[in-house]
Amino acid sequence: MHLLIVFTGEFKTKVFPLGGKFQLDQAIALKKLGIKTGILAPGLLSIRRMFNKYPYKKFQKYKKVPVLRDYKQNLLPARINIYNLWLAYRYKKFGLKLFEKYIIKHGIPDLIHCFDLRFGAFVANEINKKYNVPYITTEFSSETAENTFPMCLKHSIMPILKNAKLVTAASIPFAKKFKKKLNLKNINVSPFYPLLSPDVVKDKITNLKLSSKKFTFLTVNRLDKNKNIKFMLIAFSKKFRKKKVELKIVGDGPELNKLKKLALELNIYKQVIFVHRASRNKLKKEMKNADCFLSSSYVETFGAVLAEAIAYGLPVISTKSEGATEIINKSNGILIKHGAVKAYANSMLKIYLKKFKYNKLKIREDIIKRFGFERYSKNAKKIYSNAIK
Known about the structure:
By secondary structure, the protein is of the alpha/beta class. It starts with a strand and ends with a helix. The chain has two domains: about 1-195 and about 370-385, Rossmann fold, CATH 3.40.50.2000; about 200-370, Glycogen Phosphorylase B (Rossmann fold, 3-Layer(aba) Sandwich), CATH 3.40.50.2000. The chain has helices at about 20-30, 85-105, 115-130, 150-165, 170-180, 200, 230-240, 255-265, 280-290, 305-310, 325, 340-350, 360-370, 375-385; strands at about 1-5, 35-45, 60, 65-75, 110-115, 135-140, 165-170, 190, 215-220, 245-250, 270-275, 290-295, 315-320, 335. The protein has an eight-stranded mixed β-sheet with strand order 3-4-2-1-5-6-7-8, with helices on both faces. It has a six-stranded parallel β-sheet with strand order 11-10-9-12-13-14, sandwiched between helices. The protein contains 14 helices and 14 strands.
């Protein structure tokens, strides 16, 4: 089988070195299974990139997985709803041209796996029209659940989904919500779980923290309204103000300044550490040095970072977002209803006081068993085989 993954975003560039990481991890895993796999990454760069030029290689191999990418400048922000129709058109034509360059060297694939409706599905469908290559879609983005998927694209995406061999989403709860939000009455949406990062699985864990003597709560998130970090700060302030406890917030985003201001107002500013950007290695060190991982998202399609935290032996406290309800169980964490700040704060205190019993090595073993290479391989082979029957 020859599989082509379509990822419409910045793939491992200087600005976004982690861009496309999950897709590359999956491609390398599939390669190990004997599936010929390539990656196509057309991208229209944000207007913010106009004065921030950087070099990248259009063709590159990562562990024998060929990657063909090309980026063009976008002139207007994608948040302008109607402009997304033009973006979809550009992606279709741009993606098709890049595909035609790919097949000159690697041949026509048996199947395309596109990630996200905006705009991977449009590219896959355009290729299908001309070359009759079947495709499946997987939605990892939360924008449908958040009601931020452009209204102008909803009509045009329907025939694309109907034409797909399979429509999948990152977890069962999110698949249900995705189906409901788009009113996909006659289209089945099944789960396609991402692969737990192999670099995390290979990493070793111990019962000792690396350096900090303080009890550390950790969260890793894009700082936007959906991630709801405000909720986390309020909960932290209720139980840990002026105690020898810290909250590390790794990430950047539009809510950063508001969150800093709130931490100051809650009188916990000296205990809250904002880490705006972190390399992959830095992130792993933060995981190893933490005592508990936190999530408070309204919507979480899967929650790869939750699975990674558990793989580092960390218990997790999370609101009942879609993916979190599949990842977290009684042995590895605590699930809290949305808005229940008192219950969230009490759960933080419970873990701080060591009243929540868990075994670091056992929860690590369990999460690897559920989302590691063996389980991913079995699921992926079954899904791809069904798609090309």
